[in-house]
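Record pair follows.
FIRST:
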Amino acid sequence: MDGVCRDSFGLLNNSIFNVWTCSLCYMYLFPTEKLKFNFNRISPGLIDVDVRNASDLKSTEYICDSLDEYDCTRWKDCCRSAEQCCQHQRDTPFPTKKKVCPRTWDGYSCFEDTYPGDTAKISCPSYMKYGDLRGHVEKSCTENGTWLSHPYTGKQWTNYTGCVTIKSISGVVNAEVSANAFSLLLLVPSVAISLTFR
């Protein structure tokens, strides 16, 4: 297993894992952005970009051109976390107990081997938009030694609801509504002036 890392889709060679997860970080963090993901696990990546890791200057500059500085930093942090997760997976000995939910990177966070019936609980990642760093992420290992699947998608599921509080979202919504209301207040007099001198 040396040189192999696991994400929620399965096992990958270390170098492919870094490209795959860094590209998925972009897709998960910015689903509406212009760069699209190549889902070929043999040669994954963001289409037209060869991303080997977040420290590859040429590709990160190209990708960060599609983002503002804050989002670029979030993306790089996610990529570095995935790389660190892979390194940790390779450095950690496998448990002696046969049946465990395997260590994995789920697209945002790194989870250790977890025994059946247990729930892994970790801190929220810093790069989640509107995330509350005081919250926790949970990933449940079923009694049969597989990660819990989402009832609708059938894919491995991680509970991030502890990371996004109503208070943090309502603060953002209130700020956006206030800014829009203020701009409308300023727009009315400017329209009136321009109509007067027309």
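SECOND:
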Amino acid sequence: MPDLANTIVKYCKGLKHLRIHYPHRIMDDTALKKLTELKNLECLILDCLDELHDESITAISNNCKKLKRLEIPYCCIRRSINDELLCSPSTLDELSKLQYLEHLDLNDVGNLYDSTIIAIANNCKNLKSLDIRSCTGITETGLNALTNLENLQKLNVSHLDITTDSFLIKLKGLKELHCDECKEITDAGIIQFIKNSPDLEKISVRLINNITNVMVIGANQATEIRTNEKFKNLQKLTLRGLCLDKLILQEISEATTLVHLNIELHKKHIEFPLFDKLVNLEYIEIEFTKLENLESLEINDECLSEKAIIAISNNCKKLKRLKLVGIVVSTGIDNDDELSSPSVLKDLDICSISDDITETALVALTNLENLEKLNVSYLDKITDSFIIKLKGLKELICEGCKKLTDVGIIQFIKNNPDLAEIYAVGIDNITVDLVIAADQATKNRTNGIILRLRISNKSIIEASKSIIKSQWLAVTS
């Protein structure tokens, strides 16, 4: 849409923040290059970008001199001349011209190599946040260059097998580190990294087999001498795959203002009263992967019995997100309507929760006035009559809810004008009528929100290309 780009550049000369969802659907390279003429642009985010041509990278690097944030994740860089994948890294190296850059997201960029990382490390001295997870073209040479970024506070190197202890212990001054599935990392490296980073607030080390309780003990000892008081500034805690001593959990709960908890529970935890302590908690993610055979058990707090549900409702008044994955609740599931009391709850995930959940409990969810995102995947009791009662949602994930039909989903779309995504994969009852109705329901949107309808029927997806007239609808798998 060159005309749209021309209009934006002409009338929005002072624009500082620009975010484009699915840019390849609404504009070509010519339009994107035109937008780089916005001389005051400080933030450019290109969401869900499949590919980007080298001329666009050059235009961004040469024209957007004031840029502080750039996000171009999940894309491959291609040549503008012949559309081939870019093998030479020289074009991406030009991003190092953005000397005011503070936040850079290159997550899963297919052809990112050492030379680009080295150029950025040498020239983008203001960089505070860098995401290069899954960028497998990088070697140890590129990683080591990052130690030159003295202002770096947040780094994501997840899914990079080249991330080792020797790299971690060279990092200084970080506040947040993500190194999930970095299989070469050990307790020793993480402990030394924590010692070297006195202001560290979050470290995510999920799915690393080498990690043991030794790491937790070492982290506890390393933080004892903190002058900012142990755990006081801790806001996010991710400890999946570990079994913490309950005395450590007790100390954390009493000292911290923890707002984000992601913990894989073990039988040793079931007697620990956690939720009545963490009154500032905003995010909970609990997975009972260690209790695979649990069917009915009288437990306290962490495993979601009636008492735990009531404790969450009564004490976690700031709760914004609740995720309960694969849980079998012992008795009294109707007490799930207690969850309607956290007035600020925005994000609820009850995917694959016990089949014992009743329709009464589901109806209680409609009382959550601030709810924006709901995941009810694989719940057999999810029907049209339930989803048409939902209002104000921005995202609904209902994968595998086989009782849903076109009729219910269409009415749900009409009832939720700010809806941005429906994930309805694995529902056999969906037909092309859903696409037709969604097209009609979104064509007059004035809020600028694109509805992404995700389904699994490839023939319907293909047919939608000739059906959709609305610029506010995208149908994908």
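COMMENT: Residues 264-307, 326-342 have pLDDT under 50 and may be disordered.
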